[in-house]
Amino acid sequence: MVLEFTKMHGAANDFVMLDDREGKVPWQDYVLMSLLAARRTGVGCEGIILIQQSNRADFRMRFLNPDGTEVAMCGNGARCAAWFAHKIGAAPRVMTMETSCGLLDAELMDSCNVKVWMPEPTARSYGMVLNVDGQQVEGDYINTGVPHFVIRTASPEAVDIESLGRAIRLHSAFAPEGVNVDFVAQREPNRLSMRTYERGVEAESGACGTGAVAAAITAVEAHAGTLPVVVRTGGGFMLSVDADWRGNRCTGLTLTGPVREVYHGTIDLSLLGSDLAAIE
After folding, report:
1. pLDDT of amino acid 1
2. What does the H/E/C string look like for 158-194?
3. Which pLDDT score, from 0 to 100, does residue 280 have?
4. In which residue ranges of the chain is CATH 3.10.310.10 found?
5. pLDDT at 276 exceeding the cut of 60
6. Mean pLDDT, to the nearest integer, of 201-205?
7. Are strands 94-99 and 59-64 parallel, antiparallel or unpaired?
8. Nearest by Cα to 152 from 195, 121, 210
9. Residue of 74, 80, 101, 250 marked active site
10. What helix, strand, coil percent values describe the chain, rounded to 5?
11. Fold category of 2-109+260-279 in CATH
């Protein structure tokens, strides 16, 4: 099968975009999808996004991690999905998409900036203390569509994110699903910088939209931050998180930032499948 694809990134979070409105992409073959996502032997990405038919919204966004497994939500992925769906004629500029987290609204603000209304956060647990390799690590747990553990630090740049991030991502406190780990510095009441160790990617991500939302919510609700919050990602791009403030909680959250089309191409999936024999 030869597939057309578009490579995009949202604030350095990169994705392979597929138009699957005809339902022909073998997305349930997680091995094949992982080969497509592989950086050295495939197209390379932090996620595969399929635009599919929906009877509840303009389209359905289906998101696959680089290992081929499906996850419920990706903030920057949703923003890229909105832009791509509009480009291929699947949605107007103001749209509703179906996700595994429910229905989400999005709006193309201009040619390169997209706003998405995020799912309501759940399962807050602030001030959690973990024992990690003999050290006490304190952070804030919140689910913004996917689970995040937000650790405040003076300098995210100085953190050994591959070692500490992975240890926390696999910590028994978050078993069995694991957790994304965000290292965040509060520069001003409404300005943060962050780096994220992302589960599924199993490495540092160039950016994480749900992580930016998690960092912003915890900053405002637990650490005297103010809305709207501008978050500088590990890739150097800026994301804006805004919300309504009701009952001492953030609600009605939005995530706004840049998206870019990088290139367009075709790929023969049968050639990827031939890699399986070499691996075995």
Report:
1. 84
2. HCCHHHHHHHHHCCHHHCCCCCEEEEEEEEECCEEEE
3. 53
4. 2-109+260-279, 122-258
5. no
6. 93
7. parallel
8. 195
9. 74
10. 20, 45, 35
11. Diaminopimelate Epimerase; Chain A, domain 1 (3.10.310)
Catalytic residue among 45, 101, 208, 250: 208
pTM metric for this prediction: 0.94
What type of residue sits at position 48? Answer: I
Instruction: Tokens 């991690």: give the residue.
Output: 65
Concerning whether 112 is annotated as a catalytic residue, the answer is no
| C-alpha span between 260 and 75 (Å, rounded) | 15
* Other Cβ atoms within 10 Å of 87 Cβ, number: 16
Whole-number pLDDT of residue 250? 97
195 forms beta bridges with: 183
* Assigned superfamily of 122-258: Diaminopimelate Epimerase; Chain A, domain 1 (3.10.310.10)
pLDDT tens digits, one per residue of 248-264: 999 999 999 999 999 99
Please give the average per-residue pLDDT across 24-50, as a whole number.
95
Strand partners, 99: 102
C-beta of residue 88 within 8 angstroms of C-beta of residue 8: no
Crossing angle for the helix pair 75-87 and 209-222, nearest 10 degrees? 130
